[in-house]
Amino acid sequence: MDIKDIAKAAKEASLELLGAPEELKNLALKKVKENIEKNKDEIFAANKKDLDEAKSLVDSGEITSSTYARLKLDENKMRDMLKGIEDVISLKDPVNKVFWTKELDEGLILKKISCPIGVIGVIFEARPDVISQIASLAIKSGNAVILKGGKESNNTNAAIEKIINEALNTVENFPKNAINLVFSRDDIKALLELDEYVDLIIPRGSNKLVKYIQENTKIPVLGHASGICHIFVDKSAKVDLAKKVCVDAKIQYPSACNAVETILVHKDFSAIEELKKALCNAGVKIVENPQDFSIEYGDKIVSFKLVNSVDEAIKHINKYGSGHTDSILSENKNNVEKFMNYVDSAGVYHNVSTRFSDGFRYGFGAEVGISTNKTHARGPVGLDGLTIYKYKLFGAYQTVEPYAKGEKTFTHRFI
Fold first, then answer.
1. Which one, of 36, 13, 79, 88, lies nearest residue 384 by Cα?
2. Distance between CA atoms of 6 and 15, rounded to whole angstroms?
3. Which residues, in sequence order, are CB contacts of 256 under 8 Å at separation 6+?
4. Angle at 256 between CA 70 and CA 189, to 5 degrees
5. Which of 45, 72, 246, 268 has the greatest number of beta carbons closer than 10 A?
6. How many CA atoms within 13 Å lie on the side-chain side of 15?
7. What pLDDT sits at residue 50?
């Protein structure tokens, strides 16, 4: 099938999934987990082929060594994949959740209720374990999905998608074509034009990829183009703990989108040089007062700036930050409250590393990505972020005319 036919089929599957019971979705996930575990050697063999082919891409500079590292699928990642599916099974069904119930008038009841989004396109680079994460979240939230991975992981992606669909095909009443995989760059371009069938696009990858998608589609895009994360070390911060948190936020995984890129330090903090030394000892290069604070290093490099107050730190973050994750290290209650309220980011933290911004760490089971959007989903996006809502109105054959004439009035009472 070409990409348009795939999108049409996915749309039909999404309509069948709208009312799928939780038992059916959990059974599908159980079968998927079992089949992946049963056929993991096939997946490892496909991954080895990708790794062998990717070596030349690293040598030619087409992909980085860090991308190559993310491509590798080993026993530990396989264990995490399987555990991720288990975690999604254990989560409550995010669909048909009643947010509120309101009586419009006697016998006229309005409910706001969660429902699936529909067809979601997910475009990602490397990391073949993403397929099982996205597929499991899509199944549990009642969405159909179209996946496009990086060419460097084509063999692994194809193996995992085949094994997932083999499992789903054994589940009675589970719709066909709910989980789909495409391969070419032309497919991406075509997918971005299919707003008639695709309801949401989620890009996971480089800034270049995300910006390209945002600029080339009418379909809503959920994601983040960059991760310029900050830590503000207030003058009241505990020295040893502040050093520990700053080092963790930079070196625990330097290329992650939630790694700290700029450290702002109050000019009266008592251990400025100690903090610098701790970072340097951890292998971090410090760039003091750079000309451009909008750089996402993705490496053991950090911008460093002294500020006069929490207000100056907030102003800096709201100017240069990407709205991803920012943290204050402080024992001053008023400064903490001001920072938490006035920093305009999806994640605003107190006395913790920015690296906690993650769907798994939030207990979402897994995540489809992190969003800096100001739409229905923000921050790490898990199951709830893959739902929207509808209004259900239950009545007894009422008409609008009596209300329009003023003969009847609404009660508008939450119940």
1. 88
2. 14
3. 227, 355
4. 70
5. 246
6. 7
7. 95
What angle separates helix 239-251 from helix 272-281, to the nearest 10 degrees? 40
Neighbours of 130 (CB within 10 A): 25
Alpha helix (H) residue ranges in 39-184: 40-60, 65-71, 75-90, 130-141, 154-168
Residues 6 or more apart whose CB falls under 8 angstroms from that of 46 comprise: 155, 156, 158, 159
**Which string of b and e fits 326-338 if b means at least 16 CB within 10 Å?**
bbbbbebeebbeb
CB-CB neighbours of 348 under 10 Å: 17
pLDDT one-digit tens code per residue, 349-373: 999 999 999 888 898 867 788 888 8
Longest CA pairwise span in the chain (Å): 79
Other beta carbons within 10 Å of 126: 24
Query: Which segments in the chain show pLDDT lower than 70?
Result: 365
Contact 109, 393 (CB under 8 A): yes
Q: Are 237 and 259 in contact (CB under 8 A)?
A: no
Q: How far is residue 262 CA from its own chain's centroid?
A: 22
Question: How is residue 65 written in tokens?
Answer: 């060594």
Q: What is the pLDDT of residues 5-39, one digit of tens each?
A: 999 999 999 999 999 999 999 999 999 999 999 99
The label of the residue with tokens 């959990």 reads 26
